[in-house]
Design brief:
By secondary structure, this protein is of the alpha+beta class. It has one domain. The chain contains three helices and two strands; from the N terminus they run αβαβα. Strands 1-2 form a two-stranded parallel ribbon. α2 links the parallel β1 and β2. The longest helix is centred in the N-terminal third of the chain and has 14 residues.
């Protein structure tokens, strides 16, 4: 629940996985504790993730 996946790292990570395993279904989950969850998921989509999900801290009244 720490929300450690940052946007730039997400792009590099998913891009590398997609390049090596073109047919792999990539499903990413994150939390928004650090406030970067939504943009990290956007960068994962750009890099080739098939499924993204996450949590938004303002909907959880604290850490999510």
């Amino acid at each position: 629940m720490a929300g450690l996946l940052k946007p730039d790292a997400a792009s590099v990570l998913i891009g590398a996985i997609r390049a090596k395993y073109a047919d792999l279904v990539i499903h990413i989950h994150t939390h928004d504790t650090a406030g970067t969850g939504a943009f990290s998921m956007y960068k994962c989509i750009e890099a080739g993730a098939d499924i993204v999900d996450g949590a938004i801290d303002c909907m959880a009244n604290s850490n999510s």
